[in-house]
Design goal:
The strands form two sheets. This protein has a seven-stranded mixed β-sheet, sandwiched between helices. The chain has a three-stranded antiparallel β-sheet with strand order 8-9-10, covered by helices on one side. By secondary structure, the protein is α/β, with parallel strands linked by helices. Helix 6 runs parallel beside helix 9.
């Protein structure tokens, strides 16, 4: 029988819980996991930042949970070492795997990794703090793990706000939650589009700047970048950050300091990339002439 309209309230449904931050959402997810596996272990990517003002958004929740943890390897372009991840999973019973979509991008092996985790019934979570438009508009992430979590202020002009998203809602599960995005008065599709336009425009400008290497050169369909991350060669990253910001160009130095647990880790991401990476702004307020001037100043400094 085919009904006149869709009636199954739980088909393709995702439950949304508003939180004060992505960190709070991540803590809620860990609490849920801990109830199921009180002796479990959390497997984290080997590229987690810390700052004196905010601590570590990813690691603090793990530390506070009291659960054991380990790190799987990432390379210089934040790519996951798939075999290392698989080995870490196989060495632990019922681990929680956290996949982080850095700067709005998904891993090149995202489908391979998530399909393997699903096939092996591994509990995994997608950190989409930077990538919730890659999820909501692009449809490229966020729906395969048991949970995803977002950070509103990473993409919108807001100071707080996050979401915990539950995928695969169980049949007949009784919840009274409403989708909070019904009250979010932003044109998300337009923001998604302008960020992609700005990213491609700035990438094209940077081709004439020696001493800078764009980490994600190709902006694939469905990806909404949070910033444009680059590797700085032959120039002090921290000095470049200070000089450019003094001139009014809002560069961001995300993940400039690794958590202590990663100081001796062999991962190239934590050992090398963290000392050279800097993020250029491509958000919806940025105009082409501003990017032109920013790149001109970068040329003066890096190509002198």
């Amino acid at each position: 029988m085919i009904t006149k309209k869709a009636l199954n309230k739980n088909l393709y449904r995702r439950d949304w819980v508003y939180t004060n931050s992505a960190r709070e959402a991540w803590s809620k997810i860990i609490d849920t996991y801990k109830k199921l596996h009180p002796a479990g272990k959390i497997l984290l990517p080997s590229y987690i930042g810390w700052s004196s003002n905010e601590g570590s958004g990813i690691f603090d929740s793990v530390h506070d949970s009291g659960l054991d943890y380990d790190f799987y390897e990432l390379g210089m372009r934040l790519e996951i070492n798939v075999e290392d991840l698989k080995q870490k999973v196989s060495e632990n019973e019922n681990p929680l795997v956290l996949l982080v979509h850095y700067f709005g991008f998904i891993d090149a092996s995202y489908d391979q990794i998530t399909n393997w985790l699903i096939t092996n019934n591994v509990f995994f979570v997608e950190d989409a703090a930077h990538a919730w438009l890659t999820d909501l508009i692009g449809g490229r992430s966020g729906r395969k793990g048991s949970y995803s979590f977002y950070s509103l202020h990473k993409l919108l002009p807001l100071s707080t706000g996050g979401f915990m998203v539950t995928n695969n809602v169980k049949e007949n599960e009784d919840t009274d939650k409403t989708n909070p995005f019904l009250e979010l008065n932003y044109d998300l599709l337009s923001i998604y589009n302008i960020r992609r336009i700005n990213y491609n425009y700035l990438c094209n400008l940077l081709r004439d700047v020696s001493g800078i290497e764009v980490i994600f050169e190709n902006l694939e369909d469905g990806i909404c970048p949070q910033t444009l991350p680059v590797i700085v060669h032959n120039y002090n990253r921290d000095k470049l950050y200070e000089e450019m910001n003094e001139m009014g160009f809002g560069l961001v130095s995300l993940y400039h300091t690794m958590i202590k647990c990663l100081h001796e880790h062999k991962s190239r991401a934590s050992a090398e990339l963290s000392k050279k990476i800097i993020n250029l702004p491509i958000h919806q307020d940025v105009e082409e002439n501003q990017m032109d001037r920013m790149v001109l100043e970068l040329k003066k400094k890096l190509n002198a």
